[in-house]
Amino acid sequence: MASNVNPTVRRRRLGQELRRLRELKGMTAEEVAERLLVSQSKISRLENGRRSISQRDVRDLCGVYEVEDQRIVDSLMEMARDSRQQGWWHTFGDIPYSVYIGLETDAESLRVYEPQLVTGLLQTRAYAEALVQGALPETSTAEIEKRVQVRMRRQERITAQANPLRLWVVLDEAALKRVVGSRLVMREQLEHLIEMSQLPHVTVQVLPFDVGAHPGLNGQYAILEFADAADSSVVYLEGVTSDLYLEKAQDVQKYAVMYEHLRAQSLNVEASRKFIADVAKLYAD
Protein backbone atom coordinates (compact mmCIF):
# COMPACT_ATOMS: atom_id res chain seq x y z
CA MET A 1 0.00 0.00 0.00
CA ALA A 2 1.24 3.51 -0.72
CA SER A 3 2.54 5.37 2.32
CA ASN A 4 1.80 8.99 3.08
CA VAL A 5 5.38 9.91 2.25
CA ASN A 6 6.82 8.29 -0.86
CA PRO A 7 10.55 9.17 -1.01
CA THR A 8 10.83 8.42 -4.74
CA VAL A 9 7.99 10.77 -5.62
CA ARG A 10 9.27 13.44 -3.20
CA ARG A 11 12.68 13.36 -4.89
CA ARG A 12 11.04 13.64 -8.28
CA ARG A 13 8.86 16.60 -7.30
CA LEU A 14 11.77 18.34 -5.60
CA GLY A 15 13.98 17.80 -8.63
CA GLN A 16 11.34 19.29 -10.92
CA GLU A 17 11.05 22.37 -8.69
CA LEU A 18 14.82 22.84 -8.55
CA ARG A 19 14.98 22.60 -12.34
CA ARG A 20 12.23 25.19 -12.61
CA LEU A 21 14.13 27.57 -10.32
CA ARG A 22 17.32 27.10 -12.35
CA GLU A 23 15.53 27.81 -15.61
CA LEU A 24 13.85 30.89 -14.13
CA LYS A 25 17.33 32.12 -13.23
CA GLY A 26 18.45 31.49 -16.81
CA MET A 27 21.33 29.24 -15.77
CA THR A 28 22.57 25.99 -17.26
CA ALA A 29 23.34 22.93 -15.16
CA GLU A 30 27.00 23.41 -16.03
CA GLU A 31 26.98 26.98 -14.67
CA VAL A 32 25.35 25.84 -11.42
CA ALA A 33 27.90 23.05 -11.05
CA GLU A 34 30.75 25.53 -11.48
CA ARG A 35 29.30 27.83 -8.83
CA LEU A 36 28.96 24.99 -6.30
CA LEU A 37 32.22 23.24 -7.27
CA VAL A 38 30.43 19.99 -8.03
CA SER A 39 30.03 17.90 -11.17
CA GLN A 40 27.38 18.69 -13.76
CA SER A 41 26.19 15.08 -13.47
CA LYS A 42 25.33 15.68 -9.80
CA ILE A 43 23.08 18.61 -10.73
CA SER A 44 21.42 16.46 -13.41
CA ARG A 45 20.86 13.58 -10.97
CA LEU A 46 19.36 15.95 -8.40
CA GLU A 47 16.98 17.37 -10.97
CA ASN A 48 15.84 14.05 -12.38
CA GLY A 49 15.15 12.68 -8.89
CA ARG A 50 17.41 9.65 -9.26
CA ARG A 51 19.42 10.38 -6.10
CA SER A 52 18.65 11.64 -2.61
CA ILE A 53 18.78 15.39 -2.10
CA SER A 54 20.16 16.65 1.18
CA GLN A 55 18.91 19.77 2.89
CA ARG A 56 22.38 21.21 2.39
CA ASP A 57 22.03 20.70 -1.38
CA VAL A 58 18.70 22.54 -1.28
CA ARG A 59 20.15 25.38 0.77
CA ASP A 60 23.11 25.78 -1.59
CA LEU A 61 20.94 25.69 -4.71
CA CYS A 62 18.45 28.19 -3.29
CA GLY A 63 21.40 30.46 -2.59
CA VAL A 64 22.63 30.21 -6.18
CA TYR A 65 19.12 30.85 -7.50
CA GLU A 66 18.68 33.77 -5.08
CA VAL A 67 15.37 32.48 -3.70
CA GLU A 68 14.23 35.22 -1.32
CA ASP A 69 10.90 33.78 -0.20
CA GLN A 70 11.68 31.80 2.95
CA ARG A 71 8.43 29.87 2.62
CA ILE A 72 9.67 28.39 -0.66
CA VAL A 73 13.00 27.49 0.91
CA ASP A 74 11.29 25.88 3.91
CA SER A 75 8.96 23.89 1.64
CA LEU A 76 11.88 22.60 -0.42
CA MET A 77 13.83 21.73 2.71
CA GLU A 78 10.86 19.72 4.00
CA MET A 79 10.63 17.87 0.68
CA ALA A 80 14.35 17.09 0.92
CA ARG A 81 13.85 15.67 4.41
CA ASP A 82 10.92 13.54 3.24
CA SER A 83 12.88 12.32 0.20
CA ARG A 84 15.44 10.70 2.49
CA GLN A 85 12.89 8.56 4.30
CA GLN A 86 12.53 4.90 3.38
CA GLY A 87 9.66 3.34 1.47
CA TRP A 88 8.30 -0.13 2.26
CA TRP A 89 10.55 -1.67 -0.39
CA HIS A 90 13.72 -0.59 1.43
CA THR A 91 13.05 -3.19 4.11
CA PHE A 92 13.96 -5.82 1.50
CA GLY A 93 17.45 -4.40 1.06
CA ASP A 94 19.04 -3.53 -2.28
CA ILE A 95 16.51 -3.85 -5.11
CA PRO A 96 17.72 -3.02 -8.66
CA TYR A 97 14.41 -1.45 -9.74
CA SER A 98 13.60 0.42 -6.52
CA VAL A 99 13.02 3.70 -8.39
CA TYR A 100 10.32 2.04 -10.47
CA ILE A 101 8.67 0.51 -7.39
CA GLY A 102 8.52 3.94 -5.79
CA LEU A 103 6.79 5.36 -8.85
CA GLU A 104 4.42 2.41 -9.18
CA THR A 105 3.48 2.69 -5.50
CA ASP A 106 2.29 6.26 -6.01
CA ALA A 107 0.85 5.91 -9.54
CA GLU A 108 -2.87 6.28 -10.16
CA SER A 109 -2.85 4.23 -13.37
CA LEU A 110 -0.48 1.97 -15.24
CA ARG A 111 -0.53 0.86 -18.86
CA VAL A 112 1.74 -2.08 -19.69
CA TYR A 113 2.71 -3.88 -22.86
CA GLU A 114 4.33 -7.29 -22.29
CA PRO A 115 5.57 -9.23 -25.34
CA GLN A 116 7.04 -12.27 -23.56
CA LEU A 117 5.75 -12.65 -20.00
CA VAL A 118 2.71 -12.18 -17.80
CA THR A 119 3.18 -8.78 -16.17
CA GLY A 120 4.52 -8.86 -12.61
CA LEU A 121 1.42 -7.38 -10.96
CA LEU A 122 -0.68 -10.29 -12.24
CA GLN A 123 1.75 -13.16 -11.63
CA THR A 124 1.08 -16.05 -9.27
CA ARG A 125 3.78 -16.89 -6.73
CA ALA A 126 4.67 -20.16 -8.52
CA TYR A 127 4.99 -18.38 -11.87
CA ALA A 128 7.09 -15.59 -10.33
CA GLU A 129 9.44 -18.06 -8.65
CA ALA A 130 9.97 -20.04 -11.85
CA LEU A 131 10.40 -16.85 -13.86
CA VAL A 132 13.06 -15.31 -11.60
CA GLN A 133 14.92 -18.61 -11.35
CA GLY A 134 14.92 -19.05 -15.12
CA ALA A 135 15.79 -15.45 -15.97
CA LEU A 136 18.56 -15.20 -13.34
CA PRO A 137 20.09 -18.71 -13.18
CA GLU A 138 23.03 -17.65 -11.00
CA THR A 139 20.83 -16.02 -8.37
CA SER A 140 20.77 -17.51 -4.87
CA THR A 141 17.65 -19.06 -3.40
CA ALA A 142 17.46 -16.26 -0.83
CA GLU A 143 17.64 -13.58 -3.51
CA ILE A 144 14.94 -15.31 -5.57
CA GLU A 145 12.67 -15.42 -2.54
CA LYS A 146 13.30 -11.73 -1.83
CA ARG A 147 12.40 -10.74 -5.37
CA VAL A 148 9.23 -12.84 -5.26
CA GLN A 149 8.21 -11.34 -1.91
CA VAL A 150 8.65 -7.85 -3.32
CA ARG A 151 6.53 -8.78 -6.34
CA MET A 152 3.76 -10.15 -4.13
CA ARG A 153 3.87 -6.98 -2.00
CA ARG A 154 3.57 -4.81 -5.10
CA GLN A 155 0.37 -6.64 -6.00
CA GLU A 156 -1.35 -5.14 -2.95
CA ARG A 157 -1.96 -2.05 -5.09
CA ILE A 158 -4.24 -4.17 -7.28
CA THR A 159 -6.27 -5.72 -4.49
CA ALA A 160 -6.49 -2.63 -2.26
CA GLN A 161 -9.98 -1.76 -1.08
CA ALA A 162 -9.33 1.98 -1.30
CA ASN A 163 -7.85 3.66 -4.36
CA PRO A 164 -6.53 0.55 -6.16
CA LEU A 165 -4.16 0.97 -9.07
CA ARG A 166 -5.94 1.16 -12.43
CA LEU A 167 -4.15 -1.37 -14.59
CA TRP A 168 -4.39 -1.93 -18.34
CA VAL A 169 -2.30 -4.75 -19.78
CA VAL A 170 -1.74 -5.79 -23.37
CA LEU A 171 -0.17 -9.26 -23.53
CA ASP A 172 1.34 -10.74 -26.64
CA GLU A 173 0.17 -14.27 -27.39
CA ALA A 174 3.74 -15.43 -26.71
CA ALA A 175 3.32 -14.54 -23.02
CA LEU A 176 0.50 -17.09 -22.78
CA LYS A 177 2.27 -19.87 -24.65
CA ARG A 178 5.76 -19.62 -23.17
CA VAL A 179 5.77 -22.38 -20.54
CA VAL A 180 7.26 -20.91 -17.36
CA GLY A 181 7.77 -23.44 -14.58
CA SER A 182 5.49 -26.23 -15.77
CA ARG A 183 2.19 -26.83 -17.53
CA LEU A 184 0.44 -26.86 -14.15
CA VAL A 185 2.04 -23.54 -13.21
CA MET A 186 0.92 -22.08 -16.54
CA ARG A 187 -2.66 -23.33 -16.17
CA GLU A 188 -2.92 -21.80 -12.70
CA GLN A 189 -1.34 -18.59 -13.96
CA LEU A 190 -3.77 -18.20 -16.84
CA GLU A 191 -6.74 -18.98 -14.61
CA HIS A 192 -5.49 -16.32 -12.19
CA LEU A 193 -5.12 -13.90 -15.10
CA ILE A 194 -8.76 -14.44 -16.07
CA GLU A 195 -9.88 -13.93 -12.47
CA MET A 196 -7.90 -10.71 -12.05
CA SER A 197 -9.15 -9.37 -15.38
CA GLN A 198 -12.67 -9.36 -13.98
CA LEU A 199 -11.80 -6.69 -11.42
CA PRO A 200 -13.39 -3.38 -12.48
CA HIS A 201 -10.03 -1.55 -12.44
CA VAL A 202 -8.06 -4.22 -14.34
CA THR A 203 -8.21 -4.65 -18.11
CA VAL A 204 -6.36 -7.40 -19.97
CA GLN A 205 -6.18 -7.69 -23.76
CA VAL A 206 -4.38 -10.26 -25.87
CA LEU A 207 -2.43 -9.32 -28.98
CA PRO A 208 -2.59 -12.47 -31.18
CA PHE A 209 0.18 -13.62 -33.50
CA ASP A 210 -1.98 -13.18 -36.60
CA VAL A 211 -1.91 -9.39 -36.14
CA GLY A 212 1.53 -9.52 -37.70
CA ALA A 213 3.82 -6.49 -37.39
CA HIS A 214 2.70 -3.98 -34.76
CA PRO A 215 4.02 -0.95 -32.80
CA GLY A 216 5.17 -3.06 -29.86
CA LEU A 217 7.84 -5.02 -31.67
CA ASN A 218 10.60 -2.98 -30.01
CA GLY A 219 9.76 -4.55 -26.65
CA GLN A 220 8.15 -4.15 -23.25
CA TYR A 221 7.24 -0.77 -21.78
CA ALA A 222 4.98 0.77 -19.17
CA ILE A 223 3.34 4.18 -18.84
CA LEU A 224 2.76 5.46 -15.30
CA GLU A 225 0.31 8.28 -14.61
CA PHE A 226 -0.24 10.13 -11.33
CA ALA A 227 -3.17 11.80 -9.62
CA ASP A 228 -1.21 14.96 -8.75
CA ALA A 229 -1.05 17.29 -11.72
CA ALA A 230 2.46 18.29 -10.63
CA ASP A 231 3.71 14.79 -11.44
CA SER A 232 4.19 14.24 -15.15
CA SER A 233 3.64 10.81 -16.68
CA VAL A 234 6.62 8.48 -17.01
CA VAL A 235 7.49 5.83 -19.58
CA TYR A 236 9.48 2.97 -18.04
CA LEU A 237 11.76 0.77 -20.16
CA GLU A 238 13.28 -2.17 -18.31
CA GLY A 239 16.90 -3.13 -19.07
CA VAL A 240 19.25 -5.91 -18.02
CA THR A 241 21.75 -3.77 -16.12
CA SER A 242 19.93 -0.43 -16.02
CA ASP A 243 16.47 1.00 -16.66
CA LEU A 244 15.33 4.02 -18.64
CA TYR A 245 12.74 6.57 -17.55
CA LEU A 246 11.32 8.95 -20.15
CA GLU A 247 9.53 12.05 -18.87
CA LYS A 248 9.62 14.52 -21.76
CA ALA A 249 6.09 15.23 -22.97
CA GLN A 250 6.88 14.33 -26.59
CA ASP A 251 8.38 10.97 -25.57
CA VAL A 252 5.44 10.07 -23.34
CA GLN A 253 2.99 11.09 -26.07
CA LYS A 254 4.74 8.90 -28.64
CA TYR A 255 4.51 5.82 -26.42
CA ALA A 256 0.91 6.65 -25.50
CA VAL A 257 -0.05 6.74 -29.19
CA MET A 258 1.75 3.42 -29.73
CA TYR A 259 -0.24 1.97 -26.86
CA GLU A 260 -3.53 3.09 -28.38
CA HIS A 261 -2.60 1.26 -31.58
CA LEU A 262 -1.74 -1.86 -29.57
CA ARG A 263 -5.09 -1.75 -27.78
CA ALA A 264 -6.92 -1.28 -31.06
CA GLN A 265 -5.17 -4.24 -32.69
CA SER A 266 -5.70 -6.52 -29.68
CA LEU A 267 -8.73 -8.70 -29.01
CA ASN A 268 -11.44 -7.01 -26.97
CA VAL A 269 -11.81 -7.84 -23.28
CA GLU A 270 -14.30 -10.70 -23.64
CA ALA A 271 -12.52 -12.22 -26.62
CA SER A 272 -9.24 -11.96 -24.70
CA ARG A 273 -10.68 -13.85 -21.71
CA LYS A 274 -11.91 -16.60 -24.03
CA PHE A 275 -8.53 -16.75 -25.76
CA ILE A 276 -6.73 -17.08 -22.41
CA ALA A 277 -9.20 -19.75 -21.28
CA ASP A 278 -8.67 -21.74 -24.47
CA VAL A 279 -4.89 -21.65 -24.00
CA ALA A 280 -5.29 -22.67 -20.33
CA LYS A 281 -7.18 -25.77 -21.49
CA LEU A 282 -4.13 -26.81 -23.49
CA TYR A 283 -2.20 -27.08 -20.23
CA ALA A 284 -4.82 -29.33 -18.62
CA ASP A 285 -3.56 -32.45 -20.38
Automatic annotation (TrEMBL):
<dbReference type="Pfam" id="PF13560">
    <property type="entry name" value="HTH_31"/>
</dbReference>
<feature type="domain" description="HTH cro/C1-type">
    <location>
        <begin position="18"/>
        <end position="72"/>
    </location>
</feature>
<dbReference type="InterPro" id="IPR043917">
    <property type="entry name" value="DUF5753"/>
</dbReference>
<dbReference type="Pfam" id="PF19054">
    <property type="entry name" value="DUF5753"/>
</dbReference>
<protein>
    <submittedName>
        <fullName>XRE family transcriptional regulator</fullName>
    </submittedName>
</protein>
<dbReference type="GO" id="GO:0003677">
    <property type="term" value="F:DNA binding"/>
</dbReference>
<dbReference type="InterPro" id="IPR010982">
    <property type="entry name" value="Lambda_DNA-bd_dom_sf"/>
</dbReference>
<dbReference type="InterPro" id="IPR001387">
    <property type="entry name" value="Cro/C1-type_HTH"/>
</dbReference>
